[in-house]
Design a protein that fits this description.
345 residues, alpha/beta, Rossmann fold, 8-stranded mixed sheet, 3-stranded mixed sheet, 12 helices
Length: 345
């Protein structure tokens, strides 16, 4: 298996930006894999599980290098210690010197966490490099975290990052859960920074539960006048399907350009399947890939039951965003099937 060619990816967006302007909202006719292609890709995937996709790399950000966008809205659902947020700032605004390693150093200095580096050794990740640093960008980052004690940690991270004082960008923390309804929800209490707590309060005593606010992404986007979400990361320890349900309008209107979600054999995933959720997203016009350490594998119209493993991460991109889709598609593992639209109607 060959490594991802990041150099080629960063220039792809420019090549296809004109094409995207032409196709606009036209419906994408997606290709379908042959049986042989499905079997070949599934065999390739089987060589690299379980940790290949469980802890993916952030090369997808290179698709946004040289993009003709000046302001990005990024949302992290299940922010925990804010390593995804640090990764975004490190890439888009390197001048702020907010890196994964520097975040770990800060978290260690607080002496409030038993483990400061993320479960995927996030603190050891090297920041990706933007080539087009002359193009100034502004980030509006929203981080959701329901655990009250972890929210305290995040507020300290926000103060340490000091983003709004050093740039035109913003970093907002929302101490609430994200699901398929608005209101209140019981959450299992966990130590600050614990990465495996969720909405599952079964076998949990009253003293081990905490009531928190819960919101849908549709409601949140409407309340904050978000016309578009450029990147959405969803890590809710098994309740990602509920987040999809609460983002129904955003997905139908393709106001989410790209999103990454985790799939685990727990929580809401016990009542659905990855195949079913991907098929629903396909019907809406999203192209989905399993994302791993060294590239991606197309699963839209190319499903295999071998993808039903204990832990996966998937990246989905709007087929209406031709430039972004073409750039992301070039990050596939060598020899795997393309998710580029065969034609548009």
């Amino acid at each position: 298996m060959k490594q991802l060619n990041c150099k080629q990816t960063s220039s792809t967006v420019i090549q296809f930006s004109e094409q995207f302007n032409k196709v606009g909202d036209n419906k994408c006719i997606l290709p379908k894999c042959t049986r042989q292609q499905k079997e070949r890709q599934a065999s390739l995937f089987s060589l690299y599980v379980p940790q290949w996709s469980g802890c993916y790399d952030d090369f997808y950000l290179l698709a946004f290098d040289n993009y003709d966008t000046s302001t990005y809205t990024l949302i992290d659902v299940g922010s925990n210690k804010a390593y995804a947020v640090a990764t975004w700032f490190a890439f888009f605004l390197p001048e702020l010197n907010i890196t994964q390693a520097n975040l770990d150093t800060y978290l260690q200095s607080t002496k409030k966490l038993k483990i400061t580096c993320g479960s995927c050794d996030d603190c050891e990740d090297e920041p990706l490099t933007r080539k087009n640093t002359k193009h100034q960008v502004t980030l509006n980052v929203h981080a959701f975290e329901p655990q009250p004690d972890t929210v305290v940690i995040l507020n300290g991270v926000k103060k340490w990052m000091n983003v709004s004082e050093r740039s035109k960008s913003t970093f907002s923390i929302h101490g609430m859960a994200v699901s398929n309804y608005d209101g209140k929800v019981l959450f299992k209490k966990c130590n600050p920074g614990n990465e495996v707590c969720s909405l599952d309060v079964s076998h949990t005593s009253i003293d081990e539960k905490v009531e928190v606010d819960v919101v849908t992404l549709d409601h949140f986007a409407n309340e904050h006048n978000l016309s578009r979400i450029d990147i959405l990361k969803i890590g809710t320890e098994g309740y990602e399907p509920f987040v999809f349900q609460g983002a129904k309008r955003l997905l139908e209107e393709h106001r989410i350009r790209l999103f990454i979600f985790e799939q685990l054999e727990t929580g809401a995933w016990l009542n659905t399947t990855l195949k079913f959720e991907v098929s629903k997203l396909t019907k809406l016009g999203y192209v989905c890939y399993i994302i791993g350490k060294t590239g991606m594998i197309l699963v839209t119209n190319c499903w295999s039951d071998k993808y039903d493993v204990e832990h996966n991460n998937l990246l989905c991109v709007s087929s209406r965003d031709g430039a972004l889709l073409n750039s992301i598609d070039q990050m596939r593992l060598t020899g795997t099937v393309s998710g580029i639209c065969e034609k548009r109607m």
